[in-house]
Design a protein that fits this description.
Helices cover 34% and strands 18% of the residues. With 385 residues, it is an alpha/beta fold.
């Protein structure tokens, strides 16, 4: 390459001829500048400088000794690079290393106390319900998307549903979601795909029942209890518990609502039904591997006036005194469990509330904290059928 350049060829033409970069040609031409080719040192050179300035071993030992002294005797409790440099300056050392040099000495000699963040594996899906976490029962989650408006049309709410293990989704757009519509939608879904072990909701009054009255269970809860499905209510203002259904809400709004211009509610319902059908086809294999569902009873009829039997689960975070609020009451769970998660299982058949401690870090350890007697009062006026 150097000979070709010296014969008059351009650097670029030589680079193309030898299939190397222009920088390579320039480097070797510069290496041979002013020398005969047989006297040029063609051996490659290391990238490190010829002379490396290393801190004297005595200075390194002094840095480590000062660190130990400052850690044990410093009134401020500071023993990092800045504190060591101040101490060296106070002792009148002639050549004081820079902060970066002191840090490198500490790192090279293994004298740093820094701890790396421990990243723990996330808990399994449905970790707060042992049967769901073990894959022995399915969990259906329900939520409501509000505040949608069709141009020159009605306001729209959307009741959404998804299963935790099987990813079976559903969506019901309507001018307004009521408790009656939710009951009809749940019955339609469960007749088609079968009954899950658990059904999870947020604390909306359309799901749970009126909050102004204590011991109130709404028609959605009574529907679940009449079919042997355990209703679960997520803790207020807590992240993670509703992640599956909130993810579906975001996808539905992005792929159905915001993607198309909907002329009417009927058009939106048709587009939503197509999305749901496509999602079922996509997740068919996952649905096949999900926990088995119970068949919907053929002779079932909803009786809202019948006494409630079964379990209702409330996920709650305790107060500073270790109390949990549910069903319009505050129950003392455990004073030694403040500001922590609990699973309160209201057993209406046995007349007891069992409170279990929950920890994401140890999802399999759910100790029984307390049992409380509880009887659901009889309603003076039954639900209208």
């Amino acid at each position: 390459m150097v000979s070709a350049v010296r014969r008059g060829a351009s650097l670029r033409s030589v680079a193309r001829a030898f299939r190397v970069s222009l920088l390579t040609v320039q480097r070797w031409v510069g290496r041979a500048r002013g020398q005969r080719l047989d006297r040029v040192e063609w051996a490659d050179r290391p990238s490190t400088p010829r002379r490396v300035r290393r801190t004297a071993p005595a200075v390194e030992d002094l840095v480590l000794e000062l660190r130990r002294e400052l850690k044990e005797t410093s009134d401020l409790g500071e023993f990092g690079a800045a504190a060591i440099q101040r101490e060296l300056r106070a002792r009148g050392l002639a050549a004081i290393p820079s902060l970066r040099t002191i840090s490198r000495i500490l790192e090279r000699r293994g004298a740093l106390d820094g701890r790396r963040r421990v990243r723990r594996a996330p808990p399994p899906r449905g970790w707060y319900l042992p049967q769901v976490a073990e894959g022995e029962a399915e969990l259906d989650s329900f939520d409501i998307v509000e505040g949608l408006v069709i141009k020159s049309g009605p306001h729209v709410d959307v009741l959404t549903a998804t299963s935790l293990h099987g990813a079976l989704v559903d969506a019901w757009p309507a001018p307004g979601v009521t408790a009656r519509l939710a009951v009809d939608a749940l019955v339609t879904r469960w007749r088609a795909v079968g009954l899950p072990g658990y059904a999870q909701f947020d604390n909306d009054t359309r799901f749970q029942g009126p909050h102004q009255h204590p011991d109130a269970l709404g028609r959605v809860v009574r529907l679940c209890l009449s079919l042997g499905v355990v209703p679960v209510f997520a803790p207020p203002r807590e992240t993670g518990f509703q992640a599956a259904i909130e993810s579906l809400n975001g996808r539905w709004q992005a792929k159905v609502w915001a993607r198309f211009q909907h002329a009417s509610l009927a058009a939106l319902e048709e587009r939503s039904a197509r999305y749901v059908a496509a999602s079922h086809r996509r997740h068919a294999a996952r649905a096949e591997g999900a926990p088995a569902r119970r068949p919907f009873p053929a002779d079932w009829r909803l009786d809202l006036a019948a006494p409630a039997r079964g379990r209702v689960i409330f996920l709650r975070r305790t107060s500073a005194q270790g109390a949990a609020s549910l069903l319009g009451h505050s129950f003392t769970v455990n004073p030694l469990w403040p500001h922590r998660l609990v699973r309160a299982e209201v057993d209406l058949t046995a007349g007891v509330i069992r409170c279990y401690g929950l920890r994401r870090r140890e999802p399999r350890e759910q100790p029984l904290l307390r049992e409380l007697p509880y009887e659901l009062p009889r309603r003076r006026r039954p639900f209208a059928q």
